[in-house]
Amino acid sequence: MPKLILMDHDGAIDDLLSQLLVLTMPDTELIGVTVTPADCYIEPALESTYKLLQLMGKEQVALGRGDYYGINAFPNEWRARPEIINALPMLINLPKSPDPYLYPSAPDLIIDKLSSATQKVTILMTGPCSNLVMALEKAPELKAKIDEIVWMAGAFRTNGNVQTFQHDGSAEWNVFWDPISSQKLVSYELPLTLIPLDVTNHVPVTKKFLSTLATQIDYKLSNLTGQLWALTLDTIPSYHYTYFMWDLLATSYLAMSEQFTTEIVKANVSTRPPNAGQTYLDSNGYELKIATDVNVGYFYEYILKQYKQ
Ligand code: AGV
Ligand code: CA
To answer: In the record, what terms sit under GO molecular function (predicted)?
Structure first.
């Protein structure tokens, strides 16, 4: 039986690359994709999501539209990137999605897919967790249908990546966007594995990686992903703006969990300034698993291999 995956992403470049990566995994069935309007604008992000499904012959996978907007918005220039993606040569002529307002709302799709699944489902989240929390508040009995939640989120023994007013820099963006839902999710004590900045800091997007990827450009996926990665290099080369393979690393956990070092900890999430969205270790907090290290060489090799399609 294949592993069933429900994915919620928020339309950034590495989210879309992660969706592609899931579709390359053997023995894995993507049963639905929901999009959160966090690091994206929802209409172009749904279009990218649908086009990437088509590219992989998977346009029948159900899509859900996130209608909830978090507490702390992402910078607009980050949110606008999917427009560029939809115009890339391999995507521009693919049919657009049907009217995005015909899609079910994201929490409804999550509820529908979890209730109809005949086995437990793995939930992969590469953006904020609001859609899942809304679904579980509406249908708490569905917690029993979750095998594991893998979430790119948090920063524990390292700085966060939020640089803004009323903030001390300790939070990671996916948690900061909706600290209240994040705190709720952690408090459920479900089988939750976080892939935080502590481990994603080890996997920057490097020119060396892009250069190796370019040597396999005859593969359709290497060609497209090479173009997508190149779009991430428009960042200021200081720590806070370097682009990392944040979501790809979380996604690869589904296929190579044995290459990660993990730790069971007790933790909680702050919901107020100056550290809203900070994930912190707390002996009175809730139990969850965090990844602290990864075999970096193996990870880059794995990605390069999967894109040979
Ligand atoms: O904090 C990492 C999360 C990941 O899910 N996102 C990007 C990834 O999709 C937010 C983010 C942090 N820094 C960024 C981000 C940047 N420089 N550009 C775009 N998004
Ligand atoms: Ca993301």
So the answer is: purine nucleosidase activity
CB burial of 205-232 (b: ≥16 within 10 Å; e: otherwise) equals beeebeebbeebeeeebbbbbbbbbeeb
Q: From the CB of 39, is ligand 1 less than 6 Å away?
A: yes
The pLDDT tens digits of the residues spanning 2-45 come to: 999 999 999 999 999 999 999 999 999 999 999 999 999 999 99
Which domains are seen in the chain, by residue range?
Answer: 3-306 (3.90.245.10)
Integer-rounded Cα radius of gyration of the chain: 18
Calpha distance 240→256 (Å, rounded): 27
Q: Which residue has the tokens 């290459």?
A: 259
Sequence-distant (≥ 6) Cβ neighbours of residue 266 within 8 angstroms: 281, 282, 283, 284, 285, 286, 287, 288
What gap in Å lies between CA 46 and CA 48, rounded to an integer?
A: 5
Ligand 1 binding pocket includes 53 (Cβ within 6 Å): no
User: Is 240's pLDDT higher than 80?
Assistant: no
Of all protein residues, whose CA lies closest to atom 11 belonging to ligand 1? 173
- Tens of pLDDT along 283-299? 999 999 999 999 999 99
* The pLDDT of residue 242: 79
Of 172, 234, 246, the residue with max ligand 1 atoms within 8 A of its CB, to mutate for a pocket test, comes to 246
Give me the interface pTM, i.e. the ipTM: 0.99
* CA-based nearest residue to 45, from 119, 106, 3: 106
Total count of residues recorded for the chain:
309
For range 265-290, the mean pLDDT: 98
